[in-house]
Amino acid sequence: MKKNIRNIVLGTFLAYSPLACDDAQLHHDTSQDTEDTCPPVPIVPDGCPEIPVECLDSETRAIECFFDDNTGIQHLTGTQQQICTDGRWDNYGHCSGEIPTPPLPLCLDGSVEREYRVRENSCGLNNRGNKIQERTTRCLDGVWTSRTPWLDVGDCQDQDRCVDGSVTSPPDACGLNGDGLLTQQCIEGIYENLCLDPAECLNGTTIEVSCGITGEGVSTVICEDGYLNVGPCSVPSTGECIDGTILSEVRERTCGLNENGKFFQEKTRECVDGYWTIGSLWTDISTCIDPDDCVNGSTRTDITADCGINGNGFIEQLCEVGAWVNSRCNDDDVCRDGIVNTEDMSITCGLNNRGREVIEREQTCSSGHWSSFSGWTVAYSCNEVDNCVYGTTMYKWRLY
After folding, report:
1. Full-prediction pTM beyond 0.85?
2. N or C: which terminus of the chain has fewer CB atoms within 10 Å of its end residue's CB?
3. Cβ of 294: how many Cβ atoms within 10 Å?
4. How many angstroms separate the CA atoms of 79 and 95, rounded?
5. What residues have CB less than 8 Å from 246, skipping those under 6 apart?
6. Among the listed residues 275, 274, 270, the one whose alpha carbon sits nearest the alpha carbon of residue 245
7. How many Cα atoms are found within 13 Å in the side-chain-facing hemisphere of 290?
C-alpha cells in the first residue's frame, strides 16, 4: 500500500516533495515532485509514524531572516541555515517570527553636536583672511539628523590693514626740512612710508672744506633751501693744477685668439704752468693674458691617436670655447681585421630535385676592408629522398 505525504512548514508551503509510505517505511518519491499550492494536512498511512513529516533527514535549506523596527518596516538581516532532523526543520531562531530586542537609541533627544572648520584665504582686504565655519546635527527620536550646511561664525580674521598696491598721501610732513611729499604704499597688507624729499641737506648746516690748488685754502659750505652752497676760497688760486703733478690714466683692453684675454694701457698728463698738458699716447703696461688655446670653430688633424675599428684612424679636433675637444674619429675601415664573413645558400638537388643541398662562400677582412668572395663550396651534401627518376621503368627478368 502506498500513500503520499506532503511537506508543510510553519503554515507556508515551500515545496511539495511527496513521501511514499510503503511497507511501513518512508522514502522520497521524486516521480511526483511539484511546486504547488499548499495541500490539506497530510493523512498518515497505516503502519507509518504518526508524527507529521516536514522534510527528509539531513536535508538543508537557507531561509531569510527579518525583524520589525516598530515602525512597520521589515529589515532583512541575512539568511539562516536549517537542517532536517527526524522529519522536522530545526533552528528556527528569529526566522520563526520572533522580533529581536530593538537597538538602544543612538543619542539623547534634543542633543546638538557642533563641528567647526577654518577656511583659509577666503575673506579680508586681500583674501588672506580666515573664516570660522560651523555645522550642526540634532538628535530627533534617538537618531542624529543630517548635518546642516557650513555657515560662517563671527567676523573675518584678517591681519591686513590695506589693499595691496593702494597708495595714499597723508598730510604729514617728511624730509630733512619738512618739505618732502609723504606717500604710503600698501605692501602685503601693511602701509610703507615713502618720502619724496628734494632736499640734499638740512638747512643751516655748515661745513668747512679745503680748497685752492695747493689745498691750503678754506671754503665754507652752507645748506640753504635744502641745497649746498660753496663759499669763496680763503686762498686765491690760478690755473687748474700744481706744476709738476703727473696724472696717470689706466684702461683695460681685450686681446687674444677669441678676444677673451686682457691687458692694460696707460697714458699720463703733466701739470705745466698751472695747466694740464695734452698727455702722452696710450702705452702697454702689461702683456696679453689669453686663456684660450685655439680660435673657436677651427679644426686640426695633426694629433696622432689610435681610434677606429682597427686603430688606424685619426682624431679630428674642434676648437670650442678656446679649447681643443675631440669631435670625431676619421676612420676608413669598415670591418675588423681577421673576421671571416660566411654566406650560405640552399639549392635543390637529387633525382627529382626534391632534395636540399647547402653551399657557402667566404670573404675575409684585411686592412679594414672585405676581400672578394671565394667560390661556392658544398657545406651540407644533398639529402636525397628518391630512389628513381619520375616516369622511368625498371624491368626484372626471371629465368625458368
Report:
1. no
2. C
3. 19
4. 9
5. 268, 269, 270, 271
6. 270
7. 15
